[in-house]
UniProtKB/TrEMBL annotation:
This is TIGR02569 family protein. SUPFAM superfamilies: Protein kinase-like (PK-like). InterPro entries: CHP02569 (IPR013402), Kinase-like_dom_sf (IPR011009).
Amino acid sequence: MHKQPPADVLAAFGCAEVPVRLEGGKGGTWRAGDIVLKPVEFAPETRWRAAALAEVAESAEFRIARPLRARDGEWIAGNGTSAGQPSLGWEASRLVTGRPDTSRPDDVIRAGIAFHQAIARLPRPGFLDFRIDPWAIGDRIAWAELPPEGSETAHSLLRPLLDARRPVESAAQAVHGDLPGNVLFAPGQPPAVIDWAVYWRPPAWAAAVAVADALCWYDATPGLIGRWAQLPEWRQLLIRALVYRIVTHDLAGHWTPGQVTAYQPAIAAVLS
């Protein structure tokens, strides 16, 4: 059961309305009026991301959820204890209208490209060296910064991908590593990029992750691969995107036959 933001957190961010839980995400995001609050998972990332987003210029190509400071000037409120339990605190942002639409992978990728162009000059965040969640480990294994690990199911999927993996030369920058589901569409407005999962990789890798997800989970056809073939080192980035998702899946949960089957056509399409 995800607890709602406590009264001191609501007061710290100036929330005057009763919070209502939002759909999606991990079930812990709440809306109070035009303010969205969610629990902090890794404080160094929250602070870096909020400071970076606060400086992103307005754009005709995308919107962002503007981060909010608490009344004490910090990006996090309520860290310490909450309802008698240890708490990393809460972060807040302005509500952006729209809904995700995973049937529009090309529009998701275009929004991601515009967002990455806007943040291209950001320095590499130091917190990346200390993140040890399944997503961070999956990312490092995909880029050969850690040796492959995991179950035999994962290894059977990974073998042809790792055999085909070659070095890439594209420059890295801060990117959003989880665009599908985190791009919102609203009539008459640019798409909104939310819930920025920060990675330091070539921007085309973020597009490759979106394509891999669309192929595996959102009924996209292999033609989606070809529509973005102009992106640099595309095949190699697609390989890394699939390795990243497979390893993360293996570390974070368990396999069902349907999940294995979902990856196999995507692997074949990328390697063909």
